[in-house]
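During the reporting period the student researcher (J.K.) took over the structure-prediction task from the postdoctoral fellow and processed the backlog of single-chain submissions. One of the processed entries is reproduced below for the supervisory committee.
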Amino acid sequence: MSDLLRQTIEANRAGAPAVLPSVCSAHEVVLEASMRLAGALGRPLIVEATSNQVNQFGGYTGMKPADFVGFVRSIAEDCGFDAASLIFGGDHLGPQVWRKAPAAEAMAKAERLVADYTSAGFTKIHLDCSEGCQGEPAQVSDATSATRAAALAKVCEATAADPSKLSYMVGTEVPPPGGAHGDGEAVTPTNPAAAEATLQAHFRAFEAAGIPEAKARIVALVVQPGVEFSPTEVHHLPAGGNPALKAVLAPHEGLCFEAHSTDYQRPGAYPALAEMGFAILKVGPALTHAYRQALYALDPKSSLPEVMESLMLANPAHWQSHYHGDAATLKRLRHTGLADRIRYYWAQPEAMEAVETLMNSPIDPDLSTRFSPETTARAEALHEAGQPLARAYVLAEIQQALAPYFFGEAANG
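J.K. obtained the following structure tokens:
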């Protein structure tokens, strides 16, 4: 597996407050801001693509796995981030994108998906076969999920340039990509017995698939610590955590937990999660949410919100099943909802043109009053380093959202 990932897991298991933030985004500015922050701190970074974002058919970004690797590497080169400090992850790799099809058809596409990811150089592989396909329950059993995950792992082992570099993340209590779909949904932390049963099911499935050597490459179990977010609510980490859950790790050397949907948590949640055995903390919508906040704050009189509203109304597929309420509520959520469904529209030509116009507009002298003192301080440092002032504020707002994942170190970034 990746030495950087292995070292972090080992340090976490030894009791150090060690985690790797995993940035799940395909937004160029978000990735640049993240790399600039990690680079300033001398820290590695996981960058992940999800199966609906990037796949053999292009996903909603239009990128195949090799395209995404090239895209991220080019950003790293442009901003001076050491490519050796990058770990490429594939998120929710499995039949999920094609789950409306029969299982055999969906799994055939999933096998091609993981082959393309590993061939492109992704080494952190989240095997997610938890959702049912056509005619199946919404969530399949541990045994079914693990069997399908093992089948995909066997493909990964056969297609990776060096299988020993692979690391697998498994688990059947997987939050939906992008956060909870509705407000008021209960968030139940994973039961320790269920976590152990899931892990053992995957060990057995890997044996049955004829890849026993790959069991040692299962390095993370995706479990629910009690954190989640929905369009209007954040479920914060319960006080005291879940000490019994950490006990699941004890017999398994080199194993950690991975937490999804950690966006918008209070800063103290991240070291607390590290103490609970979570060495991988995933974040995505909170970063594009910060990008949108910064753009809208740059010039409240700009036409950008109207442009984005027009685009979202013209193609509601990315938000209409996630947001509910009257017309005024829907309009507010389209722009400011924590699910950040607006992120699907930034790459459209009209949006890109409107953003460029905004970024080239005169800067309001009262700009700093619209941002926190911390963001302003970051922006001023970036500006002094050569970034145009408006762009510096956008990068700084994103970094401020990511900073808690690096704990106290990020305050000096």
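The committee noted the following: The chain has a mean pLDDT of 94.
J.K. will present the remaining backlog at the next meeting.
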